[in-house]
Amino acid sequence: PLGLKSAPFAFFQNAQDFHSRPQLKIQHGCDRRCTYCRVCLARGPSISLEPEEVLRRAILLEEKGIAELVLTGINLAQYRAGGMDFSALLMFLLKNTGKIAFRLSSWEPEKLDGPFLEAFSQPRIRPHLHLAIQSGSNSILKAMGRPYSRDTVLKAAEAARRHRHEPFIAADMITGFPGETDADFADSLELVRQIRPAWLHVFSFSPRPGTKAFDMKPVPERIAAERAKILGQIAEQGHKDFAAGRLGCITEAVLEKRVKD
Length: 261
Hints:
Layout: E1 23-28, H1 39-42, E2 47-48, H2 51-63, E3 68-73, E4 80-81, E5 84-85, H3 86-96, E6 101-104, H4 114-120, E7 128-134, H5 138-144, H6 150-163, E8 168-175, H7 182-195, E9 199-204, H8 221-245
Parallel strand pairs: 1-3, 3-6, 7-8, 8-9
Antiparallel strand pairs: 1-2, 4-5
Helix pairs in contact: 2-3, 3-4
């Protein structure tokens, strides 16, 4: 039994009959107070699944023939359990499993430190890095309550590429955050061009009751949507460029759907 504290992790379908790449939730909640986000209010503080239970579930899936497992959470960088942070957990899982590969759902730009990069460089960790960037403007990042700068993001992307050959780097971006000027958006565009993402998840700002940003003066929806469209076009081109760069390469893949002749 996991106990009430681990209730968010209670659902686990070890057969995963309908998923070739199943997800394993190992972290829930968030200790941050980003000005636009209600997660800390709705989900509560960060809690983590014990490493031994994470391993047990991973082994069950590996024994079922699962080739790749996605580790998920509200904020994986806040994983703390059994004396381990997330980087230590990855190494623990690699040491105690046979051949199953692990994929990260998302990661925080300022958390690409030495231990994380060491784990990320391991062959059974998929070269997939989804960064929760949100903006390329330092003033907007500060207004959002994000604890990093655009320079941090650039260094994170550079570090990822030093440790893995041609990683798939994706990112979250928000347009139209209150106070975002044309110059702020230009900073976001320049940052995106510099990190050369293979994909972007783009969202127009939406005010959430109970957050600090709810009472801030909004950017007109039309402008936020136009900016989102521009980033969406960059995302499409980035995905095409990444795919073109893989032509002629041999790589491992997980079969998601069988197609009959």
